[in-house]
Write a structure and sequence with these properties.
Elements (H helix, E strand, L loop, with lengths): L1 H33 L3 E5 L11 E2 L12 E9 L3 E11 L3 E4 L3 E16 L2 E2 L5 E2 L11 E5 L2 E2 L3 H9 L6 E7 L2 E7 L2 E4 L2 E3 L2 E16 L4 E4 L15 E15 L8 E6 L6 E9 L2 E6 L1 H6 L5 E2 L9 E8 L4 E11 L10 E5 L2 H7 L10 E4 L2 E10 L2 E9 H11 L1
Parallel strand pairs: 1-4
Antiparallel strand pairs: 2-3, 3-4, 5-15, 5-21, 6-9, 6-15, 6-17, 7-8, 9-10, 9-11, 11-12, 13-14, 15-16, 16-20, 17-18, 17-19, 19-20, 22-23, 22-25, 23-24, 24-27, 25-26, 26-27
Length: about 400
């Protein structure tokens, strides 16, 4: 009997140790996931509480570091190496929060193929000239060695081909190559490739900020093609003044929408779009746009200093920029999704009454907390239009700096 009791005690002890080890491993894994791969700190300051165990050798602080990027070890409890983190020491920066709606027009860098398919030839047979050669999402950049940028150029080249071989320059996933295709005759003297194409897109969004030196950032996410569901590769674009005409109120299963009118006259241009990135669109504001900005410059807040709790957004839904109350419900410091770093909920009764919360067209609305700009609205929850995601302002500024 004593042997059986001792055996049970040993088993229970082994089980307890195993559970403790598993709990410890899960804690370490969670702690590692909670620490981002990259983090920024302002020059002259230390990291906020919770990150003071980041060390480089025996040096625990960053207040005396010059601006730059440093590879630093994160040590659990200051002792156990957990992961290596890239710490960017940056200068303090101010931006001017906007919240102004803007009309967005961008042209693709090459002619975008949005789909391919069969066409009926002159003989009544189904043909697929581009099948297995050209893919959805390809960019056609040249025809017979001649660079093209507009779909009209491609349509004209196909129409004049007489059905003879065309050599097309293709860009696919960043790689450049050439393909050979033979247009099909669909009626006497009329030729087609069986592809559907696009060379521009337009829409409405919110300008998040302008900098004192005239750079702007908007949307907080990139412009993607609705058919290919991929980030548009753009060559040029313009930002236009726009007027919001009405609001389609969001409800469960339908996020709603801002409906606006864009006047594409040259007098309504407000800036030049230089870059379309996953963190937003960026470019140079013109003099008119800079004169129309009325807010005062505000410091930015780094992601590790953002707090859950009350905040505000700036946006325009009825022709005038106004500040509305929101709640930051969670902050995700991981780098897995650069424009979903925060979950926010609209708490402002006026905004909820007008829009139901966050609607399409509000992307880019700046989020502010404790007198600082912390980020921008990016997405709405389809099942709950009062809630949405936000991007950290530092992610937008970092992407803008890369474009410069």
């Amino acid at each position: 009997m004593d042997i059986q009791k001792r055996y049970r005690r040993v088993l229970l002890g082994v089980l307890a140790v195993s559970v403790a080890l598993l709990a410890g491993l899960l804690y370490v894994e969670k702690k590692g996931n909670d620490i981002p791969d990259e983090i920024s700190v302002f020059a002259g300051e230390t990291l906020s509480e919770g990150y003071d165990v980041l060390t480089e050798g025996a040096e625990p602080a960053f207040e005396n570091r010059e601006p730059g990027s440093y590879q630093v070890d994160y040590k659990l409890f200051g002792l156990l190496p957990l992961k290596t983190v890239s710490v960017d020491v940056v200068q303090r920066q101010v931006v001017i929060p906007c919240g102004e709606p803007a009309g967005i027009y961008v042209e693709t860098d090459g002619v975008l193929v949005i789909d391919t398919g069969e066409i009926t030839g002159k003989d009544g047979l189904q043909k697929n000239p581009a099948g297995a050669i050209i893919r959805k999402g390809d960019y056609i950049t040249s025809v017979n060695g001649e660079k093209i940028g507009r779909k009209a150029d491609l349509i004209e080249a196909v129409a004049q081909s007489g059905g003879k071989e065309l050599i097309l320059g293709i860009r696919r996933n960043g790689e450049e190559f050439q393909v050979r295709v033979f247009p099909a005759e669909v009626s006497p003297g009329e030729y087609k490739l069986g592809i559907w194409i696009r060379d521009n897109t337009q829409g409405i969004g919110i300008v998040t900020y302008v900098t004192p030196d005239g750079r702007f950032g908007a949307l907080g996410h990139g412009i993607s093609d609705t058919d290919t569901e991929s980030l548009l590769e753009t060559s040029r674009g313009l930002l236009y003044d726009t007027n919001i005409l009405s609001v389609i109120k969001g409800q469960e299963g339908d996020p709603g929408e801002l409906v606006g009118y864009i006047d594409y006259h040259a007098s309504h241009v407000r800036g030049r779009i230089d870059d379309n990135t996953s963190e937003g669109i960026f470019g140079a504001a013109n003099e008119t746009m800079m004169q129309e900005v009325s807010a005062q410059p505000m410091q930015i807040c780094l992601k590790q200093d953002i707090q859950t709790g009350p905040a505000t957004i700036l946006t325009s839904i009825d022709g005038e920029v106004a500040e509305y109350n929101v709640e930051i419900e969670s902050v995700n410091l991981s780098d897995k999704d650069e424009n979903k770093g925060m979950i926010i909920r609209v708490t402002d009764e006026k905004l909820l009454e007008k829009t139901g919360g966050i609607v399409q067209g509000m992307s880019g609305s700046p989020i502010m907390q404790n007198g600082k700009v912390v980020g921008a609205v990016t997405h709405v929850f389809v099942k709950d239009s009062a809630k949405g995601f936000g991007i950290f302002i530092e992610n937008m500024l970092k992407s803008d700096r890369k474009g410069c």
